[in-house]
Amino acid sequence: MSVKQIIEVGKRLYNRNLTCGTSGNISLRQRNGQILITGTGTRLGYLSVNDVVLIDKNGDNLEGKGSSERYLHSAIYNKRKDVKAIIHVHSVAMTSFACAGKGMNQNIHPENILVFDDIPLAPYGMPSSEELVENTVKFFEDRDVVLMANHGVVACGKDLEDAFTKIEMAEANAQIILNSLILGGGVALSKKDVEDLKKLKNGN
Question: Which residue out of 8, 63, 69, 171 is catalytically annotated?
Answer without folding.
Answer: 69
